[in-house]
Amino acid sequence: MPFRPTRRNILRQSAAGFGLLGLRGLLAAAETPNPLAPKAPMFAPHAKRVIFLFMHGGPSSIDTFDPKPRLVADHGKPIPFKRSLTFGEDAVKGLMKPLWEFKQHGQSGTPVSELFPNVATCVDDLCVVRSMVGDGVDHGAALLQLHTGVFSFRRPSMGSWVLQGLGTENQNLPGFITIKPSLGHGGQNNWSSSFLPGEYQGTPIGSSDMKIEEIEKEPMPWLVPKGLTSENQRYELNMIQKMNRVHAERKAHDPDLEARIAAMELAFRMQVEAPQAFDLTKESEATRKLYGLDNETTRDFGWQCLLARRLSERGVRFVQCSHSYKWDQHSELQKLHTKNAAEVDKPIAGLLKDLKSRGLLNDTLVIWGGEFGRTPWAQGADGRDHNPYGYTMWMAGGGTKAGSIYGATDEFGYHSVENRMHIHDLHATVLALMGLDHLRLTHRYAGRDFRLTDVAGEVAKGVFA
Question: The whole model's pTM is what?
Answer without folding.
Answer: 0.86
